[in-house]
């Protein structure tokens, strides 16, 4: 038995196109292959040697014969049945290959379930964050209204030239005016002059304090090239001329130390006490530190109580005669003094104000600057506690209402909170000039001031506060 030439050529064609055959053509290919095997006496080319290794699939191909090669046909029903069985066999195998196993099915279900749970938790977290922000805004508004009610009005802004640092850090000019409740701003001096430096890139916070008697050159005041005015007088002079005290102070810092101030905040006696009481309703715990007074360590230091005249006396107040006050180093005569004991204790806003302003121990104004830095650092360190998040929002609202400032509300609610959290890295405090790094000299009015190495401290200020 031999295979005719036509079938043989057909087999060659199907073999060369084996990867592109239809189901019907594959069946024809296997039938011709079987026929070639049966024709064993025919010489086979080397290219068909691989056929000897072919193993037929489990389904029967011999049951089906292509119409073009079938001589003895069966009935049409038999042929149709054979075709149908072949198609079903191929279809079942394809379905079995595409159908995932039980393990794959379970794994797929777990993956989908995991994605759903992840989306659920993300939605929950986002909802919680939105609620926290909404509650914080509510506390901020509440605190703002409380401050307005306490002070009777909102502190008005002054015209201010905002100067930004090139590196994106922010400098906030903080001024504490010694304005009594019955006085106008035109007679107030800034006993507290600080610049708060917030740097979001390295998450560092700096406080640089300038001693109030430091001699500087105030733009358009006195000599144009000689430091002949006390720095704290810049605010007073500016307030007396068109209410530009804050701006003149900022210009003075820029002119003498080369630093930029983007924002400012000014508090007086009354607003400072209000802010502290709103932040710490039960008082702020602080370690009261004093130097000697007239070379003596006192068990209780008499500190002037400037709010006694408007808010009444408290149990810790004591009246001193002019002679008693002079014996303790007070040149301005007697009055009402708050007796503050050294050591750790809780202070309300009024006591903390008196403590921060005290300068009649043997360290003088330098000791006062140290206490001011201590107070600010203590306040900020307490506010970084996450549990005080909502209390801090309320206090920031009160602060905004009673403080003369150009800081936008958005800063309080965003960068303000972030800055407080950044203070976990600590707050670095620096005083300009350093203790005893000055020479006593007189200002243009004959008052005693501090002459410093301006070149040295200008470089120092720019190093700490940027440019």
Give an account of the 3D structure.
The protein has 467 residues and is α+β, with helices and mostly antiparallel strands. 45% of the residues lie in helices and 16% in strands. It has 14 helices and 15 strands. It has helices spanning 5-16, 23-38, 76-98, 102-151, 233-240, 245-257, 269-279, 308-311, 322-327, 349-357, 364-383, 389-402, 409-422, 454-465, and strands at 170-177, 190-199, 204-210, 215-216, 229-230, 263-267, 284-288, 301-304, 317-320, 335-340, 343-347, 404-405, 427-432, 439-442, 448-451. The strands form five sheets. It has a six-stranded mixed β-sheet, with helices on both faces. Strand 14 and strand 15 (448-451) form a beta hairpin. Helix 4 runs parallel beside helix 12, helix 5 crosses helix 6 (245-257) and helix 12 (389-402) crosses helix 13. Residues 49-80 have low confidence and may be disordered.
Q: End-to-end span in angstroms? A: 103 Å
The number of distinct helices, counting runs of at least 4 residues, comes to 14
Average predicted confidence as pLDDT: 78
How many β strands by DSSP?
Answer: 15
- Write down the overall geometry: elongated
The level of helicity is 40-55%
**H/E element order:** HHHHEEEEEHHEHEEHEHEEHHHEHEEEH
């Amino acid at each position: 038995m031999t295979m005719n030439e036509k079938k043989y050529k057909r087999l060659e064609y199907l073999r060369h196109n084996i990867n592109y055959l239809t189901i019907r053509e594959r069946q024809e290919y296997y039938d011709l292959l079987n026929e070639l095997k049966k024709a064993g006496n025919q010489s086979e080319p080397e290219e068909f040697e691989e056929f000897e290794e072919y193993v037929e699939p489990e389904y029967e191909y011999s049951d089906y014969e292509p119409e073009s090669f079938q001589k003895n046909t069966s009935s049409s029903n038999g042929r149709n049945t054979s075709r149908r069985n072949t198609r079903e066999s191929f279809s079942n195998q394809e379905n079995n290959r595409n159908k995932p196993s039980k393990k794959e099915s379970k794994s797929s279900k777990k993956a989908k379930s995991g994605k759903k749970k992840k989306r659920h938790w993300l939605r929950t977290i986002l909802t919680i964050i939105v609620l926290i922000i909404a509650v914080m805004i509510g506390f901020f508004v509440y605190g703002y209204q409380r401050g307005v009610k306490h002070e009777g009005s909102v502190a008005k802004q002054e015209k201010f030239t905002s100067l930004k640092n090139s590196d994106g850090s922010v400098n906030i000019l903080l001024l504490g005016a010694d304005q009594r409740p019955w006085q106008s701003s035109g007679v107030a001096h800034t006993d507290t002059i600080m610049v708060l430096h917030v740097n979001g890139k390295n998450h560092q916070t700096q406080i640089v304090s300038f001693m109030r008697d430091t001699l500087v050159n105030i733009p358009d005041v006195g000599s144009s090239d000689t430091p002949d005015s006390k720095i704290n007088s810049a605010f007073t002079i500016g307030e007396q001329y068109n209410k530009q005290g804050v701006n003149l102070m900022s210009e003075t810092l820029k002119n003498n130390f080369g630093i930029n101030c983007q924002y400012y905040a000014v508090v007086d006696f009354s607003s400072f006490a209000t802010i502290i009481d709103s932040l710490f309703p039960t008082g702020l715990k602080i370690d009261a530190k004093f130097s000697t007074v007239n070379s003596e360590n006192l068990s209780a230091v008499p500190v002037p109580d400037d709010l006694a005249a408007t808010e009444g006396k408290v149990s810790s107040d004591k009246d001193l005669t002019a002679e008693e006050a002079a014996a303790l180093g007070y040149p301005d005569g007697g009055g009402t003094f708050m007796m503050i004991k050294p050591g750790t204790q809780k202070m309300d806003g009024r006591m903390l104000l008196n403590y921060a302003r005290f300068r009649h121990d043997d360290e003088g104004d330098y000791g006062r600057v140290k206490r001011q830095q201590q107070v600010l650092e203590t306040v900020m360190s307490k506010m970084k506690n996450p549990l005080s998040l909502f209390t801090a929002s309320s206090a920031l609202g009160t602060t905004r209402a009673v403080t003369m400032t150009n800081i936008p509300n958005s800063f309080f609610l965003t960068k303000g909170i972030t800055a407080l959290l950044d203070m976990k890295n600590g707050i670095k405090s620096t005083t300009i000039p350093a203790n005893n790094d000055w020479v006593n000299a007189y200002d243009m009015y004959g008052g005693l001031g501090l002459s410093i190495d301006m070149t040295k401290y200008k470089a120092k200020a720019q190093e700490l506060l940027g440019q």
